[in-house]
Specification:
The protein is mainly alpha-helical. The chain has helices spanning about 1-45, 55-70, 75-90, 95-115, 120-125, 130-185, 210-225, 235-240, 245-255, 260-280, 280-285, 285-295, 300-310, 315-325. The model is unreliable at about 10-30, about 120-125 and about 190-200 (pLDDT under 50).
């Protein structure tokens, strides 16, 4: 009997308490839902306030966006907020945000069309989804094009920087090489030997007396610096030496180990280097004047011949000599 009474008591208590428990749960849900609706309605009211400035309306549109992300409650006002944000992104030329808000607008439209499909056909037709999709595709195209252009610009800039680096490195290396060649020229105190490279007469099918005569003439030619005269030719010099051009050419080839034109050019360049080292006034001449003074017809042929023999150009040689002279003054 006691057990039956306990069961009856428990059943009676449960019957009375269960509705109260259910009411409490429903009340909590209703309160939470009511708070959400209150916040949402307040944002909508502020967003649609006709007295708002454009900046303030955009501000509340962004607030609605944040609220929608958290609660997913679509409405015509949410759609209007996204339309405003899309237009604002266009004005600011922010393609990324324009694409983002367009995607959100498409989502809101899809939800609204689903909800109002049977209730309001006009509302469904009002939202031009194909147009929005087309706009979205255009935005994506522009964004891809913009990214491609940025990539190309970065690639071009990278290539230019690489080429600039190579140019800087090349100029640095060239300066180092020129510096070493200049120091070598400055440290060379030994004058170009005027005597013949080969001391003994060679069997070159030329009479030894003729060989000796030509070699002696070349020695005097070098010592007297007659090579700085302009328009020296193999024929004219052979005539001065009272021999024939063929003999003179073969003697220079065999005893000087070079062609006649190179022989004359080397004599002039060596003479120029020695004179530039010691003659301050000569260093003040223009390149064209120096070229003419040592027998060259123009500055270009002189500079090329100077570089071929010395490894640096005459202008650089003069500049470095003047700099080194100033360091010791």
């Amino acid at each position: 009997m006691k057990i039956n009474k306990s069961i009856q008591l428990f059943t009676t208590v449960f019957i009375y308490l269960f509705p109260l428990l259910s009411f409490s749960q429903e009340s909590d849900f209703s309160i939470s839902d009511s708070l959400k609706n209150t916040t949402y309605k307040a944002l909508i009211a502020k967003f649609t306030d006709a007295t708002n400035t454009k900046e303030k309306t955009i501000y509340y549109a962004k607030k609605i966006d944040s609220y929608f992300e958290a609660n997913k409650l679509p409405s015509k006002e949410v759609r209007s907020a996204y339309e405003l944000l899309i237009e604002n992104s266009k004005e600011q030329k922010n393609i990324d945000m324009q694409l983002l808000f367009t995607k959100k607008l498409l989502y809101v439209d899809s939800v609204l069309q689903h909800e109002y499909k049977t209730k309001n056909t006009a509302l469904s037709e009002k939202y031009d989804v194909p147009k929005l999709i087309k706009e979205k595709e255009e935005i994506v195209y522009k964004l891809n094009k913009q990214n491609l252009n940025s990539f190309l610009k970065l690639g071009i800039m990278g290539m230019l920087l690489f080429l600039l680096g190579v140019l800087v490195w090349y100029n640095y290396r060239r300066k180092q090489v020129y510096k070493k060649r200049f120091e070598k020229l400055i440290n060379e105190t030994k004058q170009l030997e005027s005597e013949n490279v080969k001391q003994e007469n060679k069997a070159i099918n030329i009479d030894e007396k003729i060989q000796t005569k030509i070699l002696d003439a070349l020695k005097n030619f070098e010592e007297n610096e007659d090579f700085i005269a302009r328009k020296i030719t193999l024929a004219s010099l052979a005539k001065d030496f009272e021999t024939n051009p063929k003999y003179l050419s073969r003697i220079v080839n065999e005893y000087k180990n070079k062609s006649f034109s190179t022989y004359i050019s080397d004599l002039r360049i060596h003479h120029t280097i020695v004179r530039l080292k010691t003659d301050e006034t000569f260093r003040k001449y223009t390149i064209n004047a120096i070229a003419s003074d040592v027998g060259f017809s123009n500055s270009k042929s002189f500079s090329n011949a100077f570089y071929k023999q010395a490894g640096i150009y005459p202008s650089y040689f003069i500049k470095k000599i003047n700099e080194s002279k100033n360091e010791f003054e």
